[in-house]
Amino acid sequence: MGFFDWLKGDKTDASDSQRSKSKRRRQAPTTHPITKIEQEALQLIIESARHAHPNEFAGALRAPHDTIDEIVIVPGTVQGATHAILQMHELPPDPYVVGTVHSHPSRTARPSQEDLQLFGQHGHTHIIIHEPYTRETWRCWNHRGEPVHLRVI
Ligand SMILES: [Zn+2]
Fold first, then answer.
1. Rounded to whole angstroms, how far apart are CA atoms 115 and 83?
2. 4 C-alpha to center of ligand 1: Å?
3. Among 61-65, 82-86, 117-121, 127-131, where is mean pLDDT lowest?
4. CA 150–ligand 1 middle distance (angstroms)
5. Is the pTM of this model over 0.85?
């Protein structure tokens, strides 16, 4: 079962016990509020976005507590996809994933309708970085598409 299915609740799950287990694992990490991101994590986002350009990259944000301290890059997204965030299912299940990050090879960090739909399925804290991919061109959103302030530490 992939990351995407795990977050969504896999409809192909054979047994009810498996399904409730995946539900518990999905809910637990998504409750704590995220207020900070480590510089190193932000730097990896910037570099990954630049590397993937003109394509998008996508990844998962890990935060054991209130700080995003790790980015798990979705494999293969640098090869290019119409919308990289759709490939979130490539990631293994991870209880500390609180949301997603992806890049926009454009001049806006505003989530698209598609982004908003996926945000709701992948946690509560989401980062979008746009061209030219600097410390000034990213924004954080909650699962409803409302801006969230993250402090860089
Ligand atoms: Zn997007």
1. 9
2. 16
3. 82-86
4. 19
5. no
